[in-house]
DNA sequence: TCGTTGATATTCT
DNA sequence: GAATATCAACGAC
């Protein structure tokens, strides 16, 4: 569990101007809430414009247009026809980057999440991008929404945290990058990391 | 605990 | 038509 060291402080909006890999690491430990329901980010993945695994690789389309818009906004897409997945758009000079939020350590609105997920096991509420979106109530209506304005809110990480890194999950291209990051040893991850070292 | 598989919508070829 | 940034149910051990 991530132990709070003090009161939550606002998330620094200028971090959204960082490149996706850096932001993906800094987001670990940050709070993410929708209508007050959510928790602390424990797992992320970075996707860049020049990255064959990224939805933005072949340029802007109707689906991915949020990735080419303002930073700090949500990019929400349908995964495998069933699930919604939530990204945070960022930009280090060239549009088309985002960080996929893969898992939260839930700490607010546990009852609401349990009802939406039809399970009360905290470990299974937000462990995976599809589960996380279902628990928070994220859907297409949130595509393009500002993560620092209602109904969303974010808090700064109360770190530093020990990070794990490894290859991204579920992709067939760009597998040579270790752009998946997590809070080392967290039990709320979608999957364990093979090594404990950041990369 | 592990591996396999079906469900399902949207995008791109 | 094929592929997909996933999940849960199920059966074999």
Summary, kept brief:
This protein has 199 residues and is an alpha+beta fold. The protein contains three helices and eight strands; from the N terminus they run H-E-E-E-E-E-H-H-E-E-E. It has a single domain (13-183), classed as Roll (3-methyladenine DNA Glycosylase, Chain A), CATH 3.10.300.
Protein topology:
Elements lengths: L19 H7 L4 E4 L2 E11 L26 E6 L3 E8 L6 E12 L1 H8 L11 H8 L15 E4 L7 E4 L13 E4 L16
Antiparallel strand pairs: 1-2, 1-6, 2-5, 2-8, 3-4, 4-5, 7-8
This protein binds a DNA duplex (13 and 13 nucleotides) through strand 3, strand 4 and helix 3.
- Domain module tally: 1
**Given this structure, which CATH class is correct?**
Alpha Beta
Low-pLDDT segments: none
CATH superfamily: Methylpurine-DNA glycosylase (MPG)
Order of helices and strands: HEEEEEHHEEE
Supply Rg.
Answer: 15 Å
Helical content (DSSP H or I, runs of 4+):
10-25%
> What is the general shape?
globular
The CATH architecture assignment turns out to be Roll
Beta strand %: 25-35%
Derived structural class: alpha+beta
* Average pLDDT reading: 94
Number of distinct beta strands: 8
The first-to-last residue Cα distance is 23 Å
What composes the largest sheet?
8 strands, antiparallel
Q: Report the CATH topology name.
A: 3-methyladenine DNA Glycosylase, Chain A
SS element count, helices? 3
């Amino acid at each position: 569990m991530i132990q709070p060291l003090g009161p939550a402080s606002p998330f620094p909006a200028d971090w959204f101007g960082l490149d996706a890999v850096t932001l993906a690491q800094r987001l670990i430990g940050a709070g993410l809430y929708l209508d007050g329901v959510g928790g602390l980010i424990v797992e992320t993945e970075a996707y860049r414009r020049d990255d064959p695994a990224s939805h933005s690789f072949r340029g802007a389309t109707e689906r991915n247009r949020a990735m080419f818009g303002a930073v700090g906004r949500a990019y929400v897409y349908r995964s495998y026809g069933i699930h919604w997945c939530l990204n945070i758009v960022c930009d280090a000079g060239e549009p088309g980057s985002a960080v996929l939020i893969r898992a939260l350590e839930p700490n607010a609105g546990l009852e609401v999440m349990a009802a939406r997920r039809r399970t009360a096991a905290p470990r299974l509420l937000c462990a995976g991008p599809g589960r996380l979106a279902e628990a928070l109530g994220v859907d297409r209506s949130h595509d393009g929404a500002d993560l620092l304005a209602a109904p969303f809110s974010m808090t700064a990480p109360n770190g530093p945290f020990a990070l794990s890194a490894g290859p991204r999950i579920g992709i067939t291209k760009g597998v040579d990058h270790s752009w998946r990051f997590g809070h080392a040893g967290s039990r709320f991850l979608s999957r364990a990391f093979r090594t404990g070292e950041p990369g």
